[in-house]
Design goal:
- 3 copies of one chain form a homotrimer.
- The first copy, chain A, contains 6 helices and 15 strands.
- Chain A is an alpha+beta fold.
- Chain A has a 7-stranded mixed β-sheet. In chain A, strands 9-10-14-13-12-11-15 form a 7-stranded mixed beta barrel.
- In chain A, a hairpin with a 3-residue loop joins β4 and β5.
- In chain A, α1 runs parallel beside α4 and α2 runs parallel beside α3.
- The longest helix of chain A has 14 residues.
- Chains in contact: A-B, A-C, B-C.
- At the A-C interface, β2 and α2 of A face α1 of C.
Chain lengths: 272, 272, 272
Amino acid sequence: MGHRHIITLLTGFGVQDAYVSSMKGVILDICPEAVIIDISHNVRKFDVRQGVFLLHQAASYFLEGTIHTVVIDPGVGTERRRIIVKGKRGVFVGPDNGVLSLAVQKEGFVKGVEIREKKFMLPNLSTTFEGRDVFAPASAYLACGVELEEFGPRISRMVTPSFTRATCKKDKLVGEVLHVDRFGNVITNIQRRLLSSFKVVKGEVFQAKIAKDCARITFSRTYGNVPVGALVMVVGSGNFLEISVNRGCASDLFKVDVGSRIEIFRLSNIIS
Amino acid sequence: MGHRHIITLLTGFGVQDAYVSSMKGVILDICPEAVIIDISHNVRKFDVRQGVFLLHQAASYFLEGTIHTVVIDPGVGTERRRIIVKGKRGVFVGPDNGVLSLAVQKEGFVKGVEIREKKFMLPNLSTTFEGRDVFAPASAYLACGVELEEFGPRISRMVTPSFTRATCKKDKLVGEVLHVDRFGNVITNIQRRLLSSFKVVKGEVFQAKIAKDCARITFSRTYGNVPVGALVMVVGSGNFLEISVNRGCASDLFKVDVGSRIEIFRLSNIIS
Amino acid sequence: MGHRHIITLLTGFGVQDAYVSSMKGVILDICPEAVIIDISHNVRKFDVRQGVFLLHQAASYFLEGTIHTVVIDPGVGTERRRIIVKGKRGVFVGPDNGVLSLAVQKEGFVKGVEIREKKFMLPNLSTTFEGRDVFAPASAYLACGVELEEFGPRISRMVTPSFTRATCKKDKLVGEVLHVDRFGNVITNIQRRLLSSFKVVKGEVFQAKIAKDCARITFSRTYGNVPVGALVMVVGSGNFLEISVNRGCASDLFKVDVGSRIEIFRLSNIIS
């Protein structure tokens, strides 16, 4: 049977409505042999940050050539480009609002196009549901072998949102919250390589400012290395710094939300 | 590999229990090559209205021959027929309580049968879970090529619920709410063709009575054509009139629920 | 195309994060022809009881040879075995904390191994996400035809949690709550065969103690045989005794939760 074409979906549509299944119907109508995998449909309305994080976390685990379809789009129906970007591993389809940026950066940008060609869209375009009318068909036609160049003109760069950049200053790390997961783990935009430049050591205790609250927190390899109920920083499974509580829920301790500021201070400098 | 058989599922079982996966197990046990797609499993208990809307919205996007399995069934275990209906595009399997009606009407009724033949049901029939014991096997046997006629006697008509009919009077449209979606859009049973008979013009302002509340509301092509926070009526992606708020949540403004009455008055007549 | 390999997933990861989709990416990367079916991802954190129940309920409906992957694991990152068990029907992959026990007992234990071989794990093992790094790859390699023996040393027994054993005394049944489903049905660990030893008759009325509350309750074949709003005990679709309310919600009537004690007394003995 040759190659199976995997198409992932990441949206904010939820699963109580028929939005997601309409997209799947469209995809299978165009490319019946596609295999569709849900990344998540519970991204909060308009929240590009969560989309950036979830796509970055999931995409690298998929087969080379997987087509990732992202519909997280505060600007639906307004002027912003709809793009397809080929990375070194996957292909990314979505609005050019930054939501694809971190996942593409991670594997490297190969080429990109703007989706313009009407013949690869549904014939009766609605103005409210580009996920079904533009992005789902684009992904399905890609899975069927249509080349990027046929969808529209080349683009040389994509929108990159500012919140993807955490900074490492002399004695502190500054970032922000990308996502709070089901277990109450607070996931920041501080990546593993930034921790290396900051010369973080396992077992070291830091002072953290999380939104408006301050706390001491241990950096550890795993949750279980601190007492039950204690705060701990780990590098999570997506290579981002996470603030957690061993067997507890960090997001219950702080008034913290997606977008909140996070500062990590080296304790020695505070004391001295 | 020839043709892949797509089976969709629309239920009120939720996804925290094993109900849906048991149905999928049964389907794949009978027809291992079936491709199963979820429409939704979050239809509120006993709510045939939502089922009618979601099936109508999703079904037309699927490949011809797709088998839609619907288990929204306040009367499980009591006397009501279990049916299979072949439409011009899809095949519909479910209880004969009206839930299939609008989707079948949309594409046209070709033929229907009652499910009676025990050999196409699970051997140990439970009385509480026909989704798994009757409807899932029926869909799987259909996907395997069993003909409609083998399941039981022909039926010539199906139950059609009264709530699918909105009316257009001289100066007002009267309908009701079918569904409130994740974004708080209030979806009515007023279809696009009824709006045409009512001679609605883009940009026209109407008086609406939504459950017990009244409001002025603009008819527009897209949410974004009215100011942020303003009420707007659009023809949604399913061809039904929706009441929405640009970047807001219409269902927060009114005491509105599935089944609430909706009246749309032509403003000129109220003024004159 | 020969045989399609079905892999089911049962976890507590929820669907708002990228945990589940990362596991699916890993599986399809190793075994692109796998068919992945979700049992549930909404098991409450650390709740082995719910996992036991859901796996037991769903597994027997799947095709022989189906690989069931269970990641319900309060002890992730600590010392407990990670196992693969072949039953008479399915293959079970998960932590050795009892979560696989009832499903394996139901169909009969054939053989089991501990997962030790590093070449069947992801190269960069995280300490927090064995679902993705150990269990997903194990299931995918099994689907690709790797033999049990290649994963590690044989095991002769598995952990069996005490809560899977309900007891039948002279005049009472004693069990506990395994799961409360979406409809508020309270599902106990009392199985059909225990009811047979207790010589329960349809229509018989019992005295029940549910957590701290007492109530009279009828044993019936189906919900609909008692008046709307009345309490009823039925043998549910998974062969466990369920406490329900006809068209109502039993879990709203009692302070009951997973793990609550359930006692069923023969009424004649109370009166005499």
